[in-house]
Amino acid sequence: MDGDRFILGTVNHPRPVRTITVHGQEGDVQHVGLPDKTYELGYSRCTYVESHKTVVLTVRDDHEVYLSNIENGRCHIVHSDKIRQPLGACPGIDGTVFVCSGETGYVVQLTTQGTVLTTHDISMAWPFAVSLSRDGTRLVVSNSVEDEARQIKMFKISS
Predict the structure, then answer these.
(1) How many CB atoms lie within 10 A of CB 63?
(2) Per residue in 44-98, pLDDT tens?
């Protein structure tokens, strides 16, 4: 979040997103629009888009993605047939967000205002986690299935 404070998702806590300082002091984020709800392990995840001061919270069973700007207090809730059972998310270098849609097998790219830009069919069952290289040229996705179907794939991103 900044040099001394980090944003993280919680498990079994009534606030799904919290802050912690490098000195261990916990706090709340300006969570305007984020649910005050307790999620068990594996039901929600969060990430932070620093360039847009936006907390991203995915809620698996509600099929929702919350995009809450901690500077201006606006929150956008994304409901889309392209996003079903979302979990993993990561910021793009251009202020966008990549979200894994487990049920559809897509990685969906959103703006921080909640607009679906594109969907990437990654030919993978139940994508679970996503990460982008620092230079924004490679996207890595892993899934959450068992045995031989478990995969990690890397994709080249073109600008």
Answers:
(1) 18
(2) 999 999 999 999 999 999 999 999 998 888 999 999 999 999 999 999 988 899 9
- Residue 2 has what pLDDT? 62
Neighbours of 121 (CB within 10 A): 9
Characterize 36-57 residue by residue with b for buried, 16 or more Cβ atoms within 10 angstroms of its Cβ, and e for exposed.
eeebeeebbbbbbbeebebbbb
pTM of the full structure:
0.90
Residue where the block lists tokens 């900044």: 2
C-alpha to C-alpha distance for 130 and 146, rounded to whole angstroms: 18
Query: If DSSP codes are grouped into helix, strand and coil, which group holds residue 45?
Result: strand
- The whole-angstrom separation of Cα 7 and Cα 1 is 6
Give residue 26's Cα distance to chain centre. Answer: 21
Strand pairing class (116-121; 106-110): antiparallel
- 58: which residues sit within 8 A by CB, 6+ positions away? 44, 45, 46, 64, 65, 66, 86, 87, 88, 89, 99
Query: What is the C-alpha separation between 23 and 47, in angstroms, rounded?
Result: 21
